[in-house]
Write a structure and sequence with these properties.
Strand content: under 5%
Number of strands: 0
Structural class: mainly alpha
Helix content: 40-55%
Radius of gyration: 17 Å
Bound molecules: the ligand Cn1cc(C(=O)NCCCNC(=O)c2ccc(F)cc2)ccc1=O
Number of helices: 5
Shape: elongated
Oligomer: single chain
Order of helices and strands: HHHHH
Length: about 120
């Protein structure tokens, strides 16, 4: 029957909601040589002021956990969390610092990759 809505299932479109793209992008972020500051949550006991300044901490291992627990609705909600990692980094670190520079390099890598994948 024309117009009958086919139920969307994973087998039809294996990238339903872009989650396969999220998995691919996260794997590339985790493997990047400049990922080291972002692989684990910032230890606020070891980093003075972090807990006060950064209201919504985020890191790649937390994103990995959320992806595994199916907490991302789609690519957009995933990109919001990845960008939060970079926004926190820019807020807390001088641009001209090891971690600040790593954050800028990771952000431009991510921007390039997801725009390539979405084309
Ligand atoms: C994003 N951010 C990170 C830090 C920070 O000090 N982060 C810990 C760095 C130490 N962690 C490592 O060196 C490491 C971790 C995992 C790994 F597989 C290899 C190395 C401080 C401020 C900030 O804004």
């Amino acid at each position: 029957v024309s117009g009958a809505k086919k139920a969307k299932t994973d087998k039809d479109d294996n990238n339903t909601n872009g989650l396969a793209t999220c998995r691919m992008l996260l794997a590339e972020l985790e493997a990047h040589q400049d990922a080291w500051p972002f692989l684990t949550p910032v230890n606020h006991k070891a980093v003075p002021g972090y807990r006060k300044v950064i209201k919504k901490p985020m890191d790649f291992s937390t994103i990995r956990e959320k992806l595994t627990n199916n907490q991302y609705l789609n690519l957009e909600t995933f990109i919001v969390d990845v960008n939060l990692v970079f926004e926190n980094c820019e807020r807390f670190n001088e641009d001209d610092s090891e971690i600040g520079r790593a954050g800028h390099r990771m952000r431009s890598f991510f921007d390039k990759r997801w725009t390539e994948l979405l084309k």
